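Re: folding output
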Amino acid sequence: MKRSMMEWFSAKVAMRTTLEICVAGSLLVLPISSSFAAEKPKTEVADLRYGVALYHYYQQDYIPAITELMVADARDGIQGHGNNPELIAGGLSLAFGMQNHAEQLFTQLLQDTSRPQNVRDAAWFYLGKLQYAKADWAGAASSFSRVSDKFNSDLLAEMHSLQINLQIKQNDLAPFSIKKIEQDKLSQWEPYALYNLGAANARNGDLKTAKEFFNELTAISFDGSGQSRIEYLTLMDKAHTAIGYTYLQDKSYSAAIEEFRKVRLDGMESNQALLGYGWAAIAQEKYAEAIRPWQVLQQRSLLFPAAQEALLALPFAYEKLNAPGDALREYEHAEALLAQEIDLVRDMRETLTAGELLTLVSSKPVSATMLQELEKKNEPGTLTALITDDGQNWLKLSGTSVIKTRSIYLRELFAQNDFQSAVLDLRDLLKLQKILLDWQPKLTSYTELLHQKQNWRQQKEQQVSQQSLVQKQVDMQKERDALAKRIATVKSNNDYIALADPQTRKLFAAVERSTATIERMKSAGQDTTEYENRLWVSRGILLWRAAQDFPANLAALEASLAEMDAAITATKLSHEKIASVIATGQDLQPLFARIQTQQAQVEKQLLDLNKVIDARSEKLRSKVDAQLNAHEKRLNRYLAQSHLAVARLYDAALRKQAQ
């Protein structure tokens, strides 16, 4: 089965979420009918609400996305996008761990026999993946069994590898052989399946079959580069280490040493390989040969359990070489290092409280590059736990971690699916908490807006009740009618003086009074000819002056009349509008009651949510503390063995001196 590892590493397909499968569902499998084949893929959004949901999804705002879909479904549904909206809703439910709700949505889809096969396959595949991550082995097996052979080949290969793992968990290894693995066409997942099957057979004591799977894995060649090569080398290190311990258990010590030598010294498995190398040499009574790998291992960080064991294994080898002085020195050195490491673990247990874990879980995600830079700055023994971008997708749990740490003590715990799921649950709860906290001031603002609207309405109602607008309209109408009558009189009488400027009207009034005076003088027998001539000239001049300004003054007066007409019309419309608002305006009291109900609901939900968050964070802390406690117990056990060994060597030295 030798073939290029590039085939499965260079062809690695990025894991897609359920939503991505739904949005691009036509890319998964070939169309199942000619009607599907003839249909062109959509390049536009037919329903605005579907576009809004997709926008929120691609912004990683999943709660608004599913909210948009739920609101649309509660009304008249989304039109023009087939099965996609329902699958998206199911996918989002999966993303939040709402397994029962997602299964209900998928079941509704599957009850309709007209649904395309690719829709049913995608639903059952990703439901099975989540059930697998949740350790629901029976549910995962049931979901995977419903996926057809026409499903996407890459995802089908992944599913087959997961089905192998399910049978391994049931300890059903009989059906598997090298030939069957080749027939299953596991593609990029084949090396992992070989390793898992080898490890499972080794645990069951079938060392012969275990070695067959491990050897088949190491026979795969690889000529790639970059991250793919690192993954390949790491997997090869794990395989050689596993083969070495298999030979060690089978008492084939020389063969074991040969396998341990193939492990890279800078690889993750080198510690276990160095430890196994030493024990294989000890078993052959080659004590000097055992010292070399253990001396290398002893120089490494005590975060690694293998390095802790090497602290006691090295002086044991010195004792076998009859070098009690060297052995005593190494035991005492081990005592000091182990005591220091125990203090470090205790400090970690005190520091990593429920509140600290809650802070870490709620931290803003960082990129993988930033995480690598931060990890480089830490010294061995310090703890760095960060939320990464990878943690934003439940379906990536099999390949990445939500929280990553340099601490080897917690790496095993943090790599477990149930721990990662607990972290994701807590993160989702914290997101919901933030949403509820954001809604509190919003509801308060809505209440204030309603109060303002209520006050405005009351003011308008008071205006109407006081008839202020009606009276204003009546007064304006009277003033307008008086002006119109004046204009009509002036026009009919050609009364130029009526529209003249004040000075002209004053002089003209004086002329009129003089005329009356002249009449009285004439009645008295006086000669008034000269006065009459002068008065006639003055009267003519004043009339001429008034006539010159008459057209402009009349036009200005008519313009004022038009303005008054417009003002009266506006006042009338305003009155009618206010009356209409009062008559037809929405009753605000139900809105007040609704907001009060929602405020009480948010308060209760926050109270309940805070209790759940406290309980979950404490449970998370308990898991971390239990893990650290187990490491502390192991270190204490090694320390006790060191104390006994030192006491034994001192006792032997004293007895020798006494003799």
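--- second protein (sequence, then structure) ---
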Amino acid sequence: MLRVISLTLAVLMSSAAIAAAGPQTGDDLATCRDRQAEIQARAQACDNLLNADRVNGKDKGIALSVRGNTLINKRDLVHAIETLSMAVDLDPDNVVTLNLRGLAYQRSGKDDLAMADYNLALQKRPTYGVPYNNRGLIQLRRGALQSALDDFDLSISYAPKFLLGWTNRARVRTLMKDYDGAIADFAEAEKIDPTAPQLTGNRCITYGLMGRFDAAFADCNGLIEKEPKNVFGFNNRADVNMMKGNFDAALKDYMTALKINPNNVRAHSGRGQIYERRKDVAQARADYRAAAYSLTNFDDVEVARARAIAQERLAALTPQTPGGAPTGRRVALVIGNGAYKNVHALPNPPRDSKLIAGALRDVGFQTVISASDLTRDKFFEALQTFAAEAEKADWAVVYYAGHGFEIGGVNYLVPVDAKLAADRDAETQAVALEQVIAAVGAARKVRLVILDACRDNPFAPTMRRTLSLKLVDKGFSNIEPGAGFMVVYAAKHGETAMDGDGGADSPFSTALAREIRVPKVEIRKLFDIIRDDVWSATKHEQQPFTYGSPPGREDFYFVAGK
């Protein structure tokens, strides 16, 4: 599908005038006020002023707005909203700040609050083109195509040199089957920046829908030749091959996209559709499941569409046990990654995973798959194999010990062969937590993921920050698992889990292995007890945390007792 790109924040900050400056207080203030200044230099100057408490009034509002801009770029949306709200309090008429806060709300999945900010900014300055574009993106995600088109029309009329306004309107016109209008918009965008990847990538789809396959492939092929690892290009070329009925070529492109990025939602959803056409229902379900689950409230338009297809088809293809009859079968996948090749090894995870695997066998799990020191490809293979087992079970449990952390709002588990030279490498070299959620998702009742992985990020000191993302040095971020899922962190989000001293098992794995053997302790209470045990054993330095819950109408026990 077509890529619809939100406004880059550099453009946001340069598209409207900032409030008038007050008295000069030095070079930092001058740089902070200067919307033409280099982005990082401006951000540093504003931070210097805020940290030294050398600015107030509207100037402080400007500094906070710039800081909020930086936080959005890092996808630290909670703090971005807090910072921008303070800026709005200081200068309620600053439309750039209102637009930025709207963008932070939008990327947090809080569309109603985003719309309120965009509307207020436009009420104060009706000729400000940027909020029309961002409001149009919300309308597009909601499927309100005419409203989206109206907003992109206004964005273009007030900001005719804004490339994304043209490409986004072309996107809507394509969906409305106004293909000639879309091609005309792409032509205008090409005048602004003929090298923009979203231009050829999006136009490829439009040409495909027009049946002009030679032109479509010329655009997609050109993008791939320039950027051989551009997953967007491979997905779009695969989509065009699907339109043409060339399913072998489409499958090859989806396979390539997944080889580059095994976490990619669009490629899993597209490949699932091909397998379903070929009556390979088991593989189709596996791909749909890999695309279906999300731990955040926000997807870009093309990802949301692919995920919705996967969810619909997964529901249609999932066999229902007659009467919901339980089988009593419980299965687990236990992974301990310690022998890291490019950062320091972790001695505890293999020991911890062996301890937990033994405990699960002792309490009667029929299948316990135990694996250590998994590379990226072996990690994904293990998840796919386990997902097939979970389809036949009432309980599915994954326990993982090893390196794990958050980058840019996404939680990742780290294979032993990961290099992670740059922040952008995480999505292609690590395993997104959503893929682990997908592996337990087929179980009928208990879907439990246990992460003893909240350790320091050893890649952080040398990792290049190419995406301006929030790069955390400690632990995972908080999540929102869907109904019926339970995710347990060995340490609360943003904190780190401790290893055992002198070759001992970690405090968390020790408590877990002990408590799951105790009869007649319901699973929700069990993890409360484990939390308290770890909190006490670590002298209040580590506190496990649980997100979500198993189904509420039934009690679940590792050992039921008599």
